[in-house]
Write a structure and sequence with these properties.
Number of strands: 8
Distance between the termini: 41 Å
Shape: globular
Order of helices and strands: HEHEHHHEHEHEHEHHEEH
Structural class: alpha/beta
Radius of gyration: 20 Å
Strand order of the largest sheet: 3-2-1-4-5-6-7-8
Largest sheet: 8 strands, mixed
Oligomer: single chain
Length: 370
């Protein structure tokens, strides 16, 4: 691998990161910040959030649960997942969560009445009295684990109104998933691609004309500087952690746009949108250079978003009435914005979708739709 082939993706990623940081700083220094949005209660709805035990995912779970949703954390650490459940329960009881909504018992009753009192909800009302949430194991780096997660979820016989594809890794050294995929592409993209497709039937059955089910996928600004190598999606020819990470985030945008096209053509009451959280102070930076770690440690309080700020656009996409029936959007700071030009290439969207179906071993439904 040449020095240039490693240096170019690195410079592109850090340049786009710097631009986002400067934009965040200007926004933070505005004389008046816009008021925090107020969302309606979501009682009776069920959500799945991948990577919901920490960072942006944790904040997403916390606020969706406080809005009245029954939230399922999908993660690859049982201890972290259960700890997150307990912590959110405690914060809810002590009033530390930012949204003021219905008491938990009333929320559970509303869900139960709306959906006929499923056995799983009766069990939840006994086991988790104060916060409508739970943890289910799902390793997105394993196709087998994803399929097992979907089986366990389906066994609950409950609907699914919101799917948040949030989990991810960043700038990891070259390594492969259990199925032999490059880790960024395999976990960040293919894992969510398979999970979404396996849950689509449930999402379609749960959505209605007035209340669409929603799929929210977390990408990043790095997709603006990414290149999708269809002939080498696994980065075998020349591996760059920066290039591989950016490519996985571009793939998520392409996937979302193609998914919305298929949902619209099918007449489904499901929408798919992609969100950009910005540059957020989370644990994802463990693989960056030590110099960057030092700079981040010294300046994150000013330049980086907090995890709660980073989750705001995801929560907006999941709960805002403004997003009802709206799909195929790239959202940043709770606003629709333009993604990279290449992301709108419909032929590239179709080709990536077809290749992804082959990789994860599912049928390509897009071939039946013009």
């Amino acid at each position: 691998m040449s020095l240039l082939s490693a240096l170019v993706p690195l410079l592109r990623v850090y340049c786009i990161g710097l631009l986002v940081i400067l934009h965040q700083l200007r926004r933070r220094l505005r004389p008046r910040s816009p008021p925090a949005p107020v969302f309606p209660t979501q009682n009776g709805k069920v959500a799945i959030v991948t990577g919901g035990a920490k960072g942006i995912g944790y904040q997403t779970v916390k606020h969706l649960a406080r809005l009245g949703m029954h939230v399922i954390i999908a993660g690859n650490s049982e201890s972290e997942g259960q700890a997150a459940v307990r912590k959110i329960q405690e914060e809810t009881l002590t009033g530390k969560v930012g949204f003021s909504l219905l008491p938990q018992e009333e929320a559970l009753t509303s869900v139960k009445d709306c959906w006929g009192g499923w056995p799983w909800l009766q069990h939840q009302s006994r086991v988790q009295k104060h916060t409508p949430m739970e943890f289910l194991y799902c390793d997105l780096a394993s196709m087998k684990s994803i399929r097992q997660f979907v089986q366990r979820f389906r066994a609950k016989s409950c609907p699914l109104h919101v799917l948040v594809n949030n989990a991810g890794v960043m700038l990891v050294p070259e390594r492969k998933t259990e199925d032999g995929f490059e880790e960024h592409f395999g976990l960040n993209y293919l894992g969510h691609f398979l999970l979404t497709n396996l849950l689509l039937d449930t999402l379609k059955q749960s959505g209605t004309h007035s209340h669409n089910a929603r799929i929210i996928t977390v990408s990043s600004a790095t997709h603006y500087v990414a290149k999708l190598h269809l002939s080498d999606l696994q980065s075998r020819c020349s591996y760059s952690p920066h290039g591989a990470y950016a490519q996985s985030k571009l793939a998520l945008v392409l996937f979302t746009y193609q998914l919305q096209h298929l949902l619209t053509a099918d007449g489904s009451h499901v929408t798919a949108n992609v969100v950009d959280p910005g540059v957020v102070n989370t644990e994802l930076y463990k693989h960056v250079f030590w110099v960057v770690k030092v700079v981040k440690w010294m300046t994150a309080w000013l330049f980086f978003k907090t995890p709660e700020e980073g989750a705001s656009t995801t929560i907006y996409a999941a709960a805002s009435p403004e997003m009802e029936g709206v799909g195929g959007c790239y959202l940043y700071n709770e606003e629709r914005t333009k993604s990279a030009d290449v992301a709108y290439d419909e032929e590239l969207q179709r080709r990536l979708w077809t290749e992804s179906c082959k990789m994860v071993g599912i049928s390509d439904e897009s071939s039946r739709i013009p």
